Predict the 3D structure of the following.
Amino acid sequence: MTGVTPDGDHVAAWLAHGGLVPVARVPGGELAAVAGAADFAVLPVGAVEWHGPHLPLGTDLILAEGFAAESATSSAATGPARPGGGAAGPGAAWPVGGGLAPTAGVDAASSGGGTPDEAATPAGPRGVLFPAVPYAACPGQTRPWPGTVAIRPEIAVGYLADVIEGIVAAGFPRLLIVNGHDANMSTVRAAMEWVSGRRTASLLLVNWFQLVTPAETTELYGPLTSRGHGGAYETSGVLGFDPGAVRLDAVDDLPPRPKLPVTHPYVLVESRPDPWQGWSGHISLAGEPAGRRVRELAGTRLREVVAAWVAAPPPAPPTADPLPSEGES
């Protein structure tokens, strides 16, 4: 996966060059040092859901994990290099538990991650990749279709709150959540709001689908609707990461129901729109060139968002008292 450090001494390579290190491969004894050197942690969230005969059941996971892997590359360097490479981020100074391990004494040469010359070269930001959340609340329009594994929304919110709080408590107060499943936006947001009132945390939620504008998808695909569930835009996104997972010849176009003829924002939830087969769209418009362009545009914008976020100052700790303390103005 792009951006994830190679096999071998993955922690040392990450200290030297940035990118993403999978937390599942970080030895417990090195966690404090990794947390202290990290600019942020990353949590992909997806779903196991029917997207039509042409797309895999893990479509949302492929997209969430794919874009999560592109969140920490050298092109997204967020500031001046630290002694061990990477960008200096405000999160490094945040007290979490007993305090983050200091980064000033961590460098690539001393950790076995490269020569002094390599260590002096500015690297990309350092992200710590957590395993993806695979199961999600799914809408009524896809729950009856084969392969959809849906959990109740109240279960999803509680589960996500525990996962997010656990990552923050592990020493990662700055957490990027990369979403591949639209229904997650409400449950993840609710969980983030809960955790932010309990822990000092900066929690950033980015939905890959929104990183490319409707005007840009119109440029890519023409005037026909392309942004529906399982449609040309989502299909192209999967083609941008895993072309072998897509079966473009498995379906004919299923033109989706037109949107309401108004320009005002709205959210419309219906039991079963018509036409609908658990998906709809003009699949004939999808292709690998469009997929590469979608991946390029969305990946670049994700890195821009991350760069601005990491450079921003951290929040103050949460409090149960909304009024100033005695003696404060």
In short: The two ends are 51 Å apart (CA to CA). The chain is about 35% helix and 10% strand.
